[in-house]
């Protein structure tokens, strides 16, 4: 009887094995060391984001101020350039071409950046027209070319540059501009008539230039051959009808 009682006491005093549920609780209790719970992660991320925003807030504000200042500067420059251009237009109408050139130059000096390309193109073209009125055709070509760099389809600049090319007897270049005008505006009769008028003149000029070149080459050849009692007239070019090539024959 005594032995049985002792066994029972032994069973009662022995530690109870932990259940799986108890194990989970204990592990969770101990897990805070070395493991990140969902709530801890959320709090940490929020804090990091806040710290990040605090760190870059001054830089962001500075960038916003710079952007605003840039926009205001561009708008102010556009306004000043536009006023100078309008003053140039007024002077042009009054026939004061030199004074108008100065105003357009002021507008170009103020305006800069891609936002001002249209205004700059107009000012260059208007300067080209002023130079045309002053019969400074090379300057007209230069200014209109600058206008066309900014706006390749600027009709007024193409027309005026073509006319200036003709004044400078650069007929081939003038024809190119007139053909470009017809591409942009097939109904442009002015360009079509100019092409009809200029093409025979350009062909005549090419023929004249060829004759002048041949004459120069002949003079050069005679200056060399003359030392040997000969001239280029002693040499005759004969064309082969079959091949189209030429052979040189010597004649006394």
Automatic annotation (TrEMBL):
Keywords: TPR repeat. Residues 1-72 are annotated as: Disordered. Residues 1-30 have a biased composition (Polar residues). Residues 49-72 have a biased composition (Basic and acidic residues). It comes from the Eukaryota. PROSITE patterns: TPR. TPR repeats lie at residues 121-154, 155-188. The keyword Transport does not apply. PANTHER family: TETRATRICOPEPTIDE REPEAT PROTEIN 1. This is Tetratricopeptide repeat protein 1. It comes from Acer saccharum.
């Amino acid at each position: 009887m005594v032995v049985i009682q002792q066994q029972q006491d032994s069973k009662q005093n022995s530690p109870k094995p932990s259940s799986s549920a108890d194990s989970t609780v204990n592990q969770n209790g101990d897990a805070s060391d070395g493991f990140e719970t969902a709530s801890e992660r959320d709090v940490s991320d929020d804090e990091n984001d806040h710290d990040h925003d605090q760190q870059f807030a001054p830089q962001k504000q500075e960038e916003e101020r710079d952007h605003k200042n840039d926009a205001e500067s561009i708008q102010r420059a556009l306004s000043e350039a536009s006023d100078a251009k309008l003053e140039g237009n007024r002077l042009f109408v009054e026939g004061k071409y030199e004074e108008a050139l100065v105003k357009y130059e002021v507008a170009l000096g103020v305006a800069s950046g891609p936002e001002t390309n249209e205004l700059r193109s107009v000012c260059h073209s208007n300067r080209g027209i002023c130079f045309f009125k002053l019969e400074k055709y090379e300057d007209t070509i230069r200014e209109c070319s600058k206008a066309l760099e900014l706006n390749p389809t600027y009709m007024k600049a193409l027309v005026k540059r073509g006319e200036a090319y003709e004044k400078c007897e650069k007929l081939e270049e003038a024809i190119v501009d007139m053909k470009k005008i017809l591409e942009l505006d097939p109904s442009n009769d002015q360009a079509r008539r100019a092409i009809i008028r200029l093409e025979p003149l350009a062909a005549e000029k090419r023929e004249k230039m060829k004759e002048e070149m041949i004459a120069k080459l002949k003079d050069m050849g005679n200056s060399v051959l003359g030392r040997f009692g000969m001239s280029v007239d002693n040499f005759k070019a004969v064309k082969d009808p079959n091949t189209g090539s030429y052979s040189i024959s010597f004649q006394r």
